């Protein structure tokens, strides 16, 4: 494979010896790739040396793991010694004796037999730590006293005792008057009012110009048929302003309602003494029809409004019944505020018994719009002849500005036609419906409800008064 290197013959010119030729033949060299370059052969790999290196690495790792395990064991044993020193010499029986009363009693009985209660050492510091020790003998006895049982009655109890008889037997010995709640604002010296009584309080704050009316309760209200309970409520007005109305909640099925409500009216300080407070009590039936039970008129000029909520009471003034000897007139009022108009409908009249009727006598109604004492407009219905219960159903519209509501009123006059053309018609009776300055009772309430319910027709019967 290799080339046999021959000695250069340029030296002595002689041929090489046999020994030299044999030595040269035994040596082989890799071929030279270039002139002047000699390639060296790498040393052979020793497998025994690699095996010893791996074994030494595994042994060193095992020694490190054993050393770590030894350190963990030493640390845990040290922590266990500390915990045992902190617990001291308490045993499982001691611990159970502190949590279980039954075991405590067992230990106490054993202590009595042995000559005394078992004791423990007091708190002793060990390794700068305080070890608690409990004395079992100092734990108090938690034994409950024996239950007291009421002894049976001496008499023999009947076997058939009903629940009602048992309750009556329990309540027979009670003094019920000791459990009654007394009202602080009741005036026991005043007799009951036949029309009802109402309690309220007044406070005026001049700084904010507000009058606060606190409605407390009402009593002695007349009942319905067979003294049945009512559903009363109260409306509050501060006259002569009849457009501002406030209403309480309805109290169901009672003749002594308790309201406990407050109402605020904005009134200037220079005008407060000119106002009159009106409290009107109503009842609403199942058909949603309201019935007036009475009212209270309280002038504020004679009241001390600086007292802080002093409770006062007033008797209700009964409302006049709608049955007069001259008869009744049924009219409807509707207030339209955006148009500033009042629509009036004359419906009918009834019980005009005092009329001396003949086929030629007619009955009609004259409607007059008054502002103060000045007549603004007048209308009249068609005369109905030969009847005591005429029916009209005629409507009229009157312009009433908002500023003129407090000074306006409407007069309804029932007229009888004259027997001849040359005589004047005869005035039979009249009704005035208007503001506080001109009307009262049901006539005033009709006007107030008309203003409080705009764009709604409010119809009422009114008793005719003599002219």
From TrEMBL:
Looking up PROSITE patterns in the UniProt record yields: C2 (PS50004)
Q: Where is this region: Disordered?
A: 1-32
Composition-biased stretches (Basic and acidic residues):
1-10
Q: Please state every residue range assigned to the domain named C2.
A: 194-314, 325-462
Record Gene3D superfamilies: C2 domain
> SMART domains from the xrefs?
C2 (SM00239)
Instruction: Please give the biological process terms from Gene Ontology that the record holds.
Output: calcium-ion regulated exocytosis
Annotated GO MF terms: calcium ion binding; calcium-dependent phospholipid binding; clathrin binding; phosphatidylserine binding; SNARE binding
Q: Which domain of life is it from?
A: Eukaryota
Identify the InterPro entries for this entry. C2_dom, C2_domain_sf, Synaptotagmin-15/17_C2A
What keywords would UniProt list here? Membrane, Repeat, Transmembrane, Transmembrane helix
Keyword Nucleotide-binding among record annotations: no
- The question of whether Methyltransferase is a record keyword is answered with no
TM ranges: 52-75
Which Pfam families does the record match to this protein?
C2
Known SUPFAM superfamilies for this protein? C2 domain (Calcium/lipid-binding domain, CaLB)
Q: Which cellular component, as a GO term, is one annotated location?
A: exocytic vesicle
Q: What is the name of the protein in this document?
A: Synaptotagmin-15
Biological source species: Lingula anatina
Q: Which gene encodes it?
A: LOC106167363
């Amino acid at each position: 494979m290799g080339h046999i290197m021959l000695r250069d013959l340029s030296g002595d010119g002689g041929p090489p010896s046999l020994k030299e030729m044999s030595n040269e033949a035994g040596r082989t060299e890799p071929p030279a790739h270039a002139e002047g370059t000699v390639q060296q052969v790498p040393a052979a790999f020793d497998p025994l040396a690699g095996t010893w290196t791996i074994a030494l690495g595994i042994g060193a790792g095992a020694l490190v793991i054993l050393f770590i395990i030894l350190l963990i064991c030493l640390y845990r044993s040290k922590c266990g010694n500390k915990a045992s020193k902190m617990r001291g010499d308490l045993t499982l029986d001691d611990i159970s004796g502190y949590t279980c009363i039954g075991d405590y009693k067992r230990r106490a009985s054993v202590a009595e037999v042995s000559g005394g209660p078992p004791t423990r050492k007091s708190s002793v510091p060990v390794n700068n730590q305080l070890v608690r020790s409990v004395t079992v003998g100092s734990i108090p006895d938690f034994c409950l006293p024996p239950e007291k049982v009421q002894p049976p009655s001496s008499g023999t109890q009947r076997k058939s005792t009903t629940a009602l008889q048992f309750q009556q037997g329990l309540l027979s010995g009670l003094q019920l008057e000791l459990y009654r709640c007394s009202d602080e604002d009741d005036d026991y010296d005043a007799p009951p009012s036949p029309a009802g009584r109402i309690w309220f309080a007044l406070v005026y704050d001049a700084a904010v110009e507000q009058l606060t009316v606190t409605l407390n309760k009402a009593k002695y209200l007349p009942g319905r048929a067979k003294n049945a309970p009512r559903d009363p409520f109260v409306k509050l007005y501060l006259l002569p302003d009849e457009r501002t109305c406030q209403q309480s909640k309805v109290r169901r099925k009672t003749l002594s309602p308790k309201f406990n409500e407050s109402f605020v009216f904005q009134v200037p300080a220079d005008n407060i003494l000119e106002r009159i407070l009106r409290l009107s009590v109503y009842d609403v039936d199942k058909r949603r029809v309201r019935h007036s039970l009475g009212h209270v008129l309280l002038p504020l000029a004679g009241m001390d409004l600086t007292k802080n909520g002093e409770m006062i009471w007033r008797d209700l003034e009964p409302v006049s019944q709608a049955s007069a000897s001259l008869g009744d007139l049924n009219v409807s009022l509707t207030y339209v505020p955006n148009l500033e108009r009042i629509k009036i409908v004359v419906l009918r009249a009834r019980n005009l018994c005092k009329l001396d009727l003949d086929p030629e006598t007619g009955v009609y109604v004259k409607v007059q719009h008054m502002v103060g004492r000045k007549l603004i407009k007048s209308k009249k219905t068609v005369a109905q002849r030969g009847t005591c219960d005429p029916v009209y159903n005629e409507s009229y519209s009157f312009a009433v500005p908002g500023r003129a509501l407090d000074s306006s009123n409407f007069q309804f006059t029932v007229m009888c036609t004259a027997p001849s053309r040359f005589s004047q018609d005869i005035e039979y009776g009249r009704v005035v419906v208007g503001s506080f300055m001109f009307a009262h009772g049901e006539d005033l309430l009709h006007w107030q409800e008309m203003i409080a319910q705009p764009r709604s027709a409010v119809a009422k019967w009114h008793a005719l008064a003599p002219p």
